[in-house]
Amino acid sequence: MKKIFVAGLLLCILHAEAQINEGTVKYAMKVDGNQEDIAAQMLINTSVTIYFKKEKALMDMTTPAYHMKTLTDNTGVLMLMDAMGQKFYTRKNKEDISKGKTPDPVVSFTNESKKILGYDCKKANLTVTGNRGTVSKMVIWTTDKIRNVPGIGPVNTEALSKLKGMALEVEMEQGGIKTRMVATEISTKPLTDAVFVVSTNGFTERKTPGVPPLKK
User: Fold this and answer.
1) Residue stretches of the chain with pLDDT short of 50
2) Residue-level pLDDT at 122
3) Contact criterion met (CB below 8 Å) for 153 and 167
4) Does residue 64 sit within a domain?
C-alpha cells in the first residue's frame, strides 16, 4: 500500500512539473450574431495577450475604446487604463482583493474535450455572480498542460481559481451577443523580467482606500 501511495505521489509531482509555467498566449475575439451592432463591432476588434512567468502574469488588452494592462504578482494587482486619452491606474494588494471578493463561482466540469492549437482541452460550465447580483454564464475550455493564470479577459480571478489550467477558449452571451475569446497563438519561449515592468508615468492614480500611492 505504501509503495502505491508513493507511486501516486510521484505521478502527481511529475504532472505538476510538466505544466508549462512560462510563455505567451494570444487571443482574438469572435462574435456570433448581429455584427452590425456597435457593441459587437467593438468586440470583433479586441485582442488579448497574456504573458506569464513564475508568480507573475501580465494581461494586455486592446479594444477600439481603450487599452488596458493588468499586472498580477504575489503582492497584488496593478491595472493601467488608457481610455481615449484618459489615463489612470489603480493598485490593489492582497487585503484589498479579499475585501472585494465576489460570491464563489459555480463550476460544472464535463467529459467533453477538444484540441485547441494542439493542446487537449476540457470543457467546463461556469456561473459567476457579481456584487450587484448580475449573473454571467460562460463555457470555458482549459488545458492542464499550461498553468492557470489570473485575470484572462472576462474571467475573474475567483472563477479562474476553480479551473485546473489555462483557459484557451471562453464563450459567453450578454445582451443577445454571443462572444468567444479564442487562443490564436501559444509560445513557450522564455520571457525576460523586463516584460513585466509596467510604468505608471503619464498616468493618474485612481486611489483605492487604504492603498498608498505608487512610487513612480
Assistant:
1) 1-16, 209-216
2) 95
3) no
4) yes
Domains: count for the chain: 1
Q: Which three cell numbers stand for residue 57?
A: 502574469
Closest CA to 140 of 165, 157, 117, 174: 165
User: Which cell goes with 133?
Assistant: 447580483
84: left (phi over 0), alpha (psi -120 to 50) or beta: left
Q: Give domain status of residue 113, yes or no.
A: yes
Cell numbers for 215:
512610487
Mapped onto helix, strand or coil, the DSSP state of residue 44 is helix
Phi then psi for residue 96, to 5 deg, are -65, -40
Q: Is 135 a member of any domain?
A: yes
What local confidence, expressed as pLDDT, does residue 44 receive? 67
CA dihedral of 26, 30, 36, 39, whole degrees rounded to 10? -60
Q: Which three cell numbers stand for residue 80?
A: 493601467
Looking at residue 102, its pLDDT comes to 63
CATH code, domain with 58: 2.50.20
- Tell me, yes or no, whether 88 lies in a domain: yes
Sequence-distant (6+) residues with CB within 8 A of 165 are 19, 142, 143, 144, 145, 146, 147, 148
Whether this model's pTM surpasses 0.85: no
- Per-residue pLDDT at 29: 85
How many angstroms separate the first and last alpha carbons of the chain?
58
Residue 109 belongs to domain spanning? 19-205
Confidence at residue 96, expressed as pLDDT on a 0 to 100 scale? 65
Using alpha carbons only, what angle is made at residue 34 by residues 30 and 35, rounded to the nearest 5 degrees? 50
